From TrEMBL:
Keywords carried by this UniProt record: Signal
Top-rank lineage group of the source organism: Bacteria
The protein's name: Porin
One protein family per Pfam: OprB
InterPro entries xrefs: Carb-sel_porin_OprB, OprB_Porin, OprB_sf
Tagged with keyword Signal: yes
GO biological process: carbohydrate transport
Entry GO MF terms: porin activity
Ligase recorded as keyword: no
Protein family according to the UniProt entry: Belongs to the OprB family.
Gene3D superfamilies xrefs: Carbohydrate-selective porin OprB
Signal sequence, start to end: 1-27
GO CC field: membrane
């Protein structure tokens, strides 16, 4: 379930198409390789749809020590342990220069009941996280887009707890329990190479939902249905609680976000409904090219949240929030929504002893500008494998992303300037670009140096009311991921 072999994006698409063509979608029989990870982190091979053998431990440091894992697997049990260490240094700009550390350890246990005479295509999964270190994003940069998917609140917490069951020859897969949605919904497989969290669960969703929604490191009670009615179409639907921490939309010191242990399974706020349709294609075949397969995944989807969401400009008594006579509480509306599209496509591939491939991704999100700070978001990038001499499994990538403020959020910033002479929030779109290089040192060890440049940091906000806007930031990082 963890980083086990070198990343191979083009193999992902081929495996997906073969899996669908054979009528077998193995989501119930083995968790996705990224189920324990934030979606905006390096995506290993094998990836969803290309699962490793249940008794293959060669990609872990301890392998099948003394046959213990093989013995457990005989009874349907599989234990996995992953560790991630990151160091980030702000070279220029941001709030101030300096270095910081963050890390995570994750453990998971799965149980396949068919091994002891239980239901076929069933799987029980439980996982836990230990998150540590400081946030380079908030402490040193002040950016809206988090530098890393692992940059999260320090805690020791239960992550996911669910049971999955396949039906109709495993073409229909249902999961019930405490779920993390961002490993399956809105995900671009190529974007998962990059470390910036916005390339996983996008900025608009993490900012405009309660606690960022049921996304890493949070999960929420609910159900997820995945159905493969025919090749090459996959349909997904999920319904979960929309507030994994149980806190207010705007947490404060008096009423902070709760559920640091991950053991609160509340359904008191609202319901989050997500849907997605995926189409798996071979661009070479569609274009009539005499060429090796060029796999791609095209997705459209969206969500609707039944909870109450604040107006970004007006108060409960109808006044502008920045005005002296405004009530303390903002005006609230029932319901919120977002739509999105994801385009993942391999554009060049050469087979051989040293396979080479290049893939692109594009993702756009959109919602209204009344209840949402960010009404539009976009990410795009390029990943290339096999071009580094003598390093056939190394993957290089370059990507860009941005979040665009909604009209009410921009008006609120102007109101703040009008009434107080200060701008407490930004009005410009924050952009970031990332260069990254993932290199597998051992089958169980990946090292990934990373560079990010962010301009209009914080949306052009100031670190203090009497100072200029936060300078554009240049950041260097190093991610080291190990599987035990």
């Amino acid at each position: 379930m963890f980083l086990s072999k070198k990343l191979c994006v083009y193999c992902l698409g081929i495996g997906l198409m073969l899996a669908v063509a054979s009528g077998q979608i193995f989501a119930a029989t083995r968790p996705l390789t990224t189920d324990i990870l934030p979606s905006g982190v390096p995506l290993p091979f094998p990836a969803p749809g290309m699962q490793s053998s249940s008794d293959d431990w060669n990609s872990t440091l301890f392998a099948d020590t003394y046959g213990v894992r093989s013995w457990l697997n005989h009874y349907g049990l599989r234990f996995s342990l992953q560790d991630v260490e990151e160091v980030w240094g702000v070279a220029s700009g941001g709030l101030h220069q300096g270095a910081s550390y963050n890390g995570m350890s994750a453990a998971s246990l799965t149980f396949d009941p068919s091994r002891i005479g239980g239901w076929k295509y069933g799987l029980f999964n439980v996982s836990a996280l230990q998150i540590r270190g400081r946030s380079a994003t908030s402490d040193n940069v002040g950016a809206l887009n988090t530098l890393s998917g692992y940059d999260a609140q320090r805690s020791l917490r239960l992550f996911e707890l669910w049971y999955g069951q396949g039906f109709l020859g495993n073409r229909l897969d249902v999961r019930v329990g405490s779920l993390d949605l961002d490993t399956e919904f809105m995900v671009s497989q190529n974007a998962s190479l990059f470390l910036n969290a916005s390339f996983g669960w996008p900025l608009s969703a993490s900012t405009d939902l309660y606690s960022g929604g049921p996304s890493w490191p949070y999960s929420a009670p609910g159900v997820r249905i995945r159905y493969n009615p025919l090749y090459p179409l996959v349909l997904m639907f999920a319904a979960t609680d929309d507030n994994p921490t149980g806190g207010p939309f705007y947490p404060s010191q008096d009423n902070p976000a709760q559920n640091l242990s991950g053991t609160r399974f509340g359904v008191s706020n609202g319901a989050l409904f997500m849907f997605e349709a995926q189409l798996w294609v071979d661009a070479a075949r569609r274009l009539g090219l005499d060429h090796a397969a060029l796999p791609g995944t095209w997705k459209i989807g969206g969500y609707y949240d039944t909870g109450s969401f604040p107006d970004r400009r007006y108060s409960a008594n109808g006044r502008i929030l920045a005005a002296p006579d405004a009530s303390v509480s903002p005006r609230y509306y029932h319901g919120n929504w977002m739509v999105y599209g994801v385009f993942d496509q391999t554009i060049w591939r050469i087979e051989g002893d040293t396979p080479r491939a290049a893939s692109v991704f594009i993702r756009v999100t959109g919602n209204d500008g009344i209840k949402n700070t960010f009404s539009f978001g976009a990410e795009a990038g390029l990943t290339v494998q096999g071009i580094v001499p003598h390093r056939k499994d190394d993957v290089l990538g370059i990507a860009w992303g941005a979040g665009f403020f909604g009209r009410r959020a921009k008006q609120a910033a102007e109101d703040s300037l009008l009434y107080s002479g200060e701008i407490t929030s930004g009005r410009k779109s924050e952009h970031h670009i990332e260069l990254t290089w993932q290199t597998p040192v051992q089958p169980w060890l990946n090292i990934q140096p990373d560079f990010q440049y962010i301009w209009n940091v914080g949306g052009g906000a100031s670190s203090q009311s009497d100072t200029p806007a936060i300078p554009n930031a240049a950041i260097f990082g190093l991610n080291v991921s190990s599987s035990f």
